[in-house]
Write a structure and sequence with these properties.
This protein is an alpha/beta fold. It has 15 helices and 32 strands. Helix 7 (387-397) packs antiparallel against helix 8 and helix 12 (460-479) packs parallel to helix 13 (515-529).
């Protein structure tokens, strides 16, 4: 092997580095005359050549350097021999390959980049507000064009349609309902609630904002939101809001296409104070809308009036954080200009909050609209929704090669700045995806219509198999770098294909004597008891065809995790010293080895916390 970015023998610092931080690259190339590293910033800039030196004639060529500017850099090597040269690129296992053209990545982030401590601890719980719990119903009957459904009814959908849903049915979940269930969330180890949009809007998902400064009346009043935040903090829980700032609803104070509001909207007059917010091609009916949906007119995120309204002193972000919110998750972050995200960050940070972004790919090297994005360098997002982990976890427990799984995990660990990595919103399902139980063992929907999706129910055998796989997936979710996020109801085995069937009402009759719920409580308790998950190291131990194990370490405290999705048991010879440590879950150690049962997992702990935890369990 010439070079591996995973090994400290080759790269003195694993992963991203701070600007001006020294790093040494070392290539093993005996019998060569010269080794160069070729580095470029971003995807489209030219390479610069830097020579590595072998001062002691050992075959090891090295270069110690640093990077003045934040950004994402790409590099590979060229090795010169007497009569030829050989380019060395990154292979699938992140080590070298003499063919191909894949560069290694070096992320460089601001030396001042940090995230709030609360964002690295505990568990995140995502709530679709209309469907979690119905408390005080005083506000349930508002706006005549809404359908008010009974709790637990199936969400409305358009018969026979592949993509169309209705989204005007409301079940009455509200702020008071969430407040009433705070003890339940605390028992799950929840430290952050992420709420899908709460602002007044004329659909149950509320991604078509009608009024940025008013809570939707079905949810309650602004004062009741303030009360919810206050009560949540008494339980040690922070609340993050969904910020939908790339578009509004056409039925809003700002656009007012339907004339619902007394305001003069942009659709009604070019003299409207909101006219400059939107992108008209031919006033008033031809305007740019989000992904072609005419009900979602796009805003111009660089318009000074709009930017000030959202991010200025006393603006939307200040207002809601003043009521008690502790940050925002930015909807479609990759569709927002970097300059706008920077201003949002400034507003969030002057209130001491956390800023997540919705990015479905690797956010460190994301290119959107032809531009290299600067999400994670320290002056935009704090962290992101971790869809890459989701895809890897689901694929692994369903049969993906363990080596490919581990390399995928390490790729994110290598590319993301440490503050972002520690606070990743790790997830298995969301309001935009199938429910995790359905994704694991349900029949694939392919291109089947809503009628088919609406009528699918998993068999008892499918549910039983899903439980086994979900336990494995959730163990990975809770113990890999980042913070686990539960989509409301996943912990009680809620089923459902995509929107609207993944947004059904929480069935509170299922919280008693529930095997999966107790499993999630066990994992939440584990994260609460052990600080290795807050910002500890991630150390791979094994990555076999159908088995992985790893260590999380923070000072003297360590935890060892082994996950076996195979139909056969795995006999694991433990690392030196581990045979005497505490088994938290799984079989007891015998003769220095640990048997991990089929489709099961094992967890061991090192440190005083582990013995205390086992006694409590």
């Amino acid at each position: 092997m010439y070079y591996s970015s995973k090994l400290k023998e080759h790269k003195s610092v694993f992963g991203a580095i701070k600007q001006k931080q020294e790093i040494t690259y070392r290539v093993f190339a005996p019998y060569s005359q010269r080794v160069d590293i070729l580095i470029r910033k971003g995807e489209n800039s030219p390479y610069f050549y830097y020579e590595l030196k072998d001062e002691f004639q050992t075959g090891w060529f090295e270069l110690t350097t640093s990077f003045e500017d934040v950004g994402v850099y790409f590099y590979h090597f060229e090795i010169y021999y007497d009569r030829h040269k050989q380019a060395i690129f990154r292979g699938e296992d992140m080590a070298d390959t003499p063919s191909g053209n894949a560069d290694w990545q070096q992320t460089v982030y601001s030396s001042s980049f940090s995230v709030p401590e609360f964002a690295k601890k505990g568990v995140i719980y995502q709530i679709f507000p209309d469907r979690f719990f119905k408390g005080d119903i005083k506000y349930s009957k508002v706006f005549d064009d809404r359908v008010y459904a009974s709790w637990g009814d199936r969400p409305l959908y358009a018969n026979g349609s592949v993509g169309k849903v209705i989204n005007n049915d409301y079940f009455g979940g509200n702020f008071n309902g969430i407040a009433e269930k705070l003890p339940y969330l605390k028992d799950l180890g929840v430290s952050i609630i992420y709420l899908n949009p709460i602002f007044e809007a004329h659909s149950n998902h509320r991604y078509n904002t009608a009024n940025y400064l008013k809570a939707d009346p079905v949810l309650g009043t602004n004062e009741e939101f303030k009360s919810l935040c206050k009560k949540a903090k008494e339980f040690g829980i922070h609340i993050i809001l969904d910020g939908v700032f790339s578009h509004t609803g056409d039925d809003s104070i700002y656009f007012n296409k339907k004339g619902r509001y007394d305001s003069v909207g942009a659709y009604q007059s070019t003299d409207s104070p909101y006219y400059s917010w939107y992108k008209f091609v031919d006033f008033p009916d031809n305007y740019i809308s989000w992904w072609g949906f005419e009900t979602l007119p796009e805003v111009q995120e660089t318009d000074p009036s709009y930017v000030d309204f959202i991010t200025g002193e006393g603006g939307v972000i200040d207002y809601w954080m003043g009521l008690g919110a502790d940050g925002f998750r930015l909807d479609v972050a990759d569709e927002l200009p970097d300059c706008f995200i920077q201003k949002i960050r400034t507003a969030v940070k002057r209130n001491g909050g956390m800023l997540y972004g919705e990015v479905w790919e690797d956010a460190s090297n994301k290119v959107s609209y032809g531009e290299q994005r600067a999400f994670l360098y320290g002056d935009e997002l704090d962290s992101v929704m971790n869809y890459p982990f989701k895809d890897l976890i689901i694929s692994f427990v369903k049969g993906m090669n363990g080596t490919h799984f581990m390399n995928g995990i390490l790729q994110i660990c290598e590319n993301y700045p440490k503050p972002s990595l520690d606070s990743l919103m790790n997830l298995l399902s969301t309001h935009d995806t199938e429910r995790i139980l359905t994704a694991l063992t349900g029949e694939p929907p392919l291109n089947r219509d809503r009628e088919w999706q609406a009528n699918q129910k998993m068999s008892p055998e499918e549910i039983k198999g899903g439980i086994r796989l979900l336990k494995l997936a959730s163990v990975l979710l809770y113990t890999l770098p980042g913070v686990p996020c539960i989509y409301y109801g996943d912990e009680i085995l809620t089923q459902g294909y995509r929107d609207p069937f993944n947004r059904s009402c929480f069935d509170w009759s299922k919280v008693n004597d529930n095997e999966m719920l107790e499993h999630y409580k066990f994992l939440g308790n584990l994260r609460t008891e052990c600080d290795v998950f807050n910002s500890g190291e991630f150390i791979p131990v094994q990555a076999e065809k159908d088995f992985v194990s790893y260590i999380r370490k923070n000072g003297e405290n360590e935890i060892f995790v082994a996950v076996n999705p195979n139909e056969n048991a795995q006999q694991l010879v433990l690392l030196p010293g581990w045979a005497q440590d505490t088994v938290i879950f799984g079989n007891e150690v015998e003769n220095g080895s640990l048997k991990v049962e089929p489709k099961s997992f094992a967890i061991m702990g090192r440190g005083d916390w582990a013995k205390i935890f086992k006694n409590r369990k």
